[in-house]
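P.,

For your records, the input lines for the assembly:
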Amino acid sequence: MTDTVGYCAAILTTLSFLPQAIKTIKTKDTSGISLLMYSMFTIGVFGWLVYGFLKRDIPVFVANLVTLSLAGIILTMKIKYK
Amino acid sequence: MTDTVGYCAAILTTLSFLPQAIKTIKTKDTSGISLLMYSMFTIGVFGWLVYGFLKRDIPVFVANLVTLSLAGIILTMKIKYK
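Structure tokens returned:
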């Protein structure tokens, strides 16, 4: 039951980053994105990834692995096309 | 050690939502915010809150409690001033 809640939460919070990632890849417009915010967020998500790994918490690990990829793409585009 | 990683991650991902929340409260400009994204995200964060509670995982619970408040404020502003 607990893991189901975790996976549902993971799907929702992860998917909510997809529109931003797709939009940024398509338009290459990153003017509305805060570099500081995304840098902090990306490092933080990496922290959650390590935390999920250390705690052997699969939903936390998987969710943050996908979110890290998406946030990483957005951050890379921001640095490349600013 | 594990909890320290969790708290550092929590502080980074939570703080990264502060600039957006402050900006939205100040300007009441929510035109650049996706209603679908924030709705999904807010429900997802609520899911993580329940997950953290069920797992007795303090860093996950606290991080998502603060993020839920910030995302909730942004979502409320979006619905009110759209």
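Two observations worth noting. Chain A touches chain B through 36 residues (CB under 8 Å). The mean pLDDT of chain A is 90.

Regards
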